[in-house]
Amino acid sequence: MAMQLIPLHTRSINEQTLDTVNARDLHTFLELGRDFSNWIKARIAQYGFEEGEDFTVISRSPKLASGNRGATKEYFVTLDMAKELAMVERNEKGKQARRYFIDCEKQLHEQKHLPATTPNTATLETGLHEKEKYQLLNDMIKSLKLDSNPVVIPSIEMVNMIHAIRMYQQQIAQLRTPDWVNDNVDRVKDYAQRSFTDF
To answer: Where is the AntA/AntB antirepressor domain (predicted)?
Structure first.
């Protein structure tokens, strides 16, 4: 991933595991100069963000002897909400953060399309070509240094190969050698035997 301007955190929002941003980290990056708690509450109210849909709140107990009187609330916001929060600030830092979140989304999307380690229908839609994927699997198997030498072949290719072999076997079985071929083979054999006896 590109240089991490603002860390991403995996959180569960609306029964989905999502990549999120701690709004406090975003607030610090944007260099707003406003109190975080007032800023995030005002933005949530102003733009209609919903808890459980756009963000989740985690309360942290204060550390003993830290001087904090109450629990600290951490707001973990979705990348979409983070982009919108960055955009509404209308400053250079906001633009930079928004571009960063767009880049994060692209890279996360690409990662989701990387191949799994075993062939199945989901991996057929991945970014790697089939040949590269099976080459990778074969290399992994070779690295195991097994006694035998197994080879990974895509199941559809195996089925097609078996069908082709059966078809060729049937065609070969139906072939009859023409008489003129047999006659010529016999002549060549006779000629070869005579040639050897002449010496």
So the answer is: 21-91
Instruction: Label each residue of the chain as H, E or C.
Output: CCCCCCCEEEEEECCEEEEEEEHHHHHHHHCCCCCHHHHHHHHHHHHCCCECCCEEEEEECCCCCCCCCCCEEEEEEEHHHHHHHHHHCCCHHHHHHHHHHHHHHHHHHHHHCCCCCCCCHHHHHCCCCHHHHHHHHHHHHHHCCCCCCCCCCCHHHHHHHHHHHHHHHHHHHHCCCCHHHHHHHHHHHHHHHHHHHCC
pLDDT at 14: 86
Q: Closest Cα to residue 6, out of 79, 70, 87, 109?
A: 79
Kindly list the domain boundaries of the chain, sorted by start residue: 8-61+68-112, 155-197
Q: Profile the chain (199 residues) by mean pLDDT over runs of 10 residues.
A: 75 89 94 93 96 93 60 92 93 92 85 55 48 66 63 63 72 65 72 58
The model scores a pTM over 0.90: no
